[in-house]
Specification:
The protein has 125 residues and is mostly beta strands. It is built from two helices and six strands. The radius of gyration is 14 Å and the shape is globular. The protein starts with 14 loop residues before the first helix and ends in a 7-residue tail after the last strand.
Length: 125
């Protein structure tokens, strides 16, 4: 598997990310290298759909929180764990085109299905 970072040009954003941001009419905001994603790593990789939302960038966090399944994890063993953005290809490679969406955006993807929308509540957190 090719890492999403290795596919990107020196501008820091891939063509797929640029096109997706253009499609939704937003300025791209790609996550910085070595920044952290909150990821529910204990959820099975086969669980669908894949959900992601982006809070405002803070410290080393790029704002992305990612989980599998329809509900946000609440159980103790399913809370979000910090994961470097460079390792996201291992856990959710299908999310790569969406990672340049700015804070306030949500993504839900499954085989043959895509839902992307802005959620004003995310930017106030």
């Amino acid at each position: 598997m090719i890492s999403w970072r290795r596919r990107m040009p020196s501008s820091g954003i891939s063509a797929a990310q640029r096109e997706l941001c253009r499609r939704f009419g937003v300025e791209a905001s790609p996550p910085g290298q070595r920044t952290m994603v909150g990821f529910a790593v204990s959820r099975p990789r086969t669980l669908e759909p894949l959900n992601a939302l982006r809070h405002p960038i803070a410290g080393r966090s790029n704002g992305w929180f990612v989980w599998r399944g329809s509900e946000i994890p609440q159980e103790d063993d399913h809370f979000f764990h910090p994961l470097h953005i460079e390792h996201l290809d291992t856990y959710a490679p299908e999310l790569a085109p969406y990672l340049a969406l700015p804070p306030g955006w949500r993504v839900l993807v499954a085989p043959g299905y895509e839902d992307v929308w802005h959620d004003d509540e995310l930017t106030g957190i």
